[in-house]
């Protein structure tokens, strides 16, 4: 279980605290464990919107896998103390990640811009740790299927074809997403949609632009890429996502890297 520490400073913007906190608490509800803590230089912190927030003045013990988030503040905010800056630098130097809102950074110092940018920032950090599928699940839980195209495209294939209003197809997608590593016969998808097997592919393609198999394959490939980025071998990644052999995974990865584009956008 990782610890997410919010550093609350005077004139902090409420949305910049609440947005990321909601992302990580929702992730915890969905089975991606996180513990949230709120620290400050004083026990009461006046926000830029006039609401006082309570925080602990003692810092918890941090490990390299833990995260510190520094929410954005109003223009008249006082500077951060030297002791607090020392803690931030020390956590980063020890291999931890420090994330803030407004400004520029690199490596394990991550920043975003914009009033609501903290939500995107938290989803990005969640995706780095648990994979785009996890970030996509949390985004759907927070925002529903009709996400903005830009946000959806950055997170996961499971969000890109979710802007339709066909409830039967949403049920099929829910089933595929929950069991994408398994073999899913057409009769099972038809049962979930409440229609005939003949109708499943037609409805799915009309709503999403994909066949059910192409949708499942895109989720498998996405998960495999996440495992490979985290050090898994091709053999392990292929097995974990349900491909029969490594040749299938290699072929799909090569196709995704080709000028023809990502296989998640293909119809066959």
UniProtKB/TrEMBL annotation:
The keyword Transcription applies. Residues 170-267 form the HTH araC/xylS-type domain. It comes from the Bacteria. InterPro entries: Class_I_gatase-like, Homeodomain-like_sf, HTH_AraC, INH-QAR. Keywords: Transcription, Transcription regulation. SMART domains: HTH_ARAC. This is GlxA family transcriptional regulator. It comes from Nonomuraea roseola. The lineage of its organism: Bacteria, Bacillati, Actinomycetota, Actinomycetes, Streptosporangiales.
């Amino acid at each position: 279980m990782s610890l997410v520490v919010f550093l609350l400073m005077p004139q902090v913007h409420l949305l910049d605290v609440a947005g990321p906190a909601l992302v990580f608490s929702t992730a915890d509800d969905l089975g991606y464990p996180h513990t949230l803590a709120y620290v400050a230089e004083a026990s009461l912190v006046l926000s830029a919107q006039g609401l006082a927030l309570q925080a602990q003045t003692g810092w918890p013990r941090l490990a390299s896998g833990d995260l510190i988030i520094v929410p954005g503040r109003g223009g008249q905010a006082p500077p951060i103390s030297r002791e607090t800056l020392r803690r931030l630098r020390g956590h980063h130097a020890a291999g931890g990640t420090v994330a803030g809102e407004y400004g520029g950074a690199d490596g394990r110092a991550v920043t975003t811009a914009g009033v609501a940018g903290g939500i995107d920032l938290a989803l990005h950090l969640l995706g780095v740790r648990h994979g785009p599928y996890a970030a996509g699940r949390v985004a759907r839980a927070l925002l529903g299927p009709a996400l903005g195209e830009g946000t959806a495209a950055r997170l996961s294939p499971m969000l890109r074809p979710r802007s339709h209003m066909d409830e039967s197809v949403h049920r099929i997608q829910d089933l595929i997403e929950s069991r994408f590593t398994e073999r899913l016969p057409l009769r099972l998808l038809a049962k979930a949609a409440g229609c005939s097997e003949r109708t499943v592919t037609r409805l799915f393609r009309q709503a999403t632009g994909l066949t059910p198999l192409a949708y499942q394959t895109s989720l498998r490939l996405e998960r495999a890429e996440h495992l490979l980025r985290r050090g898994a071998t091709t053999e392990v990644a292929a097995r974990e996502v349900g491909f029969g052999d490594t040749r299938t995974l290699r072929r799909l990865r090569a196709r995704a890297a080709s000028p023809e584009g990502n296989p998640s956008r293909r119809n066959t």
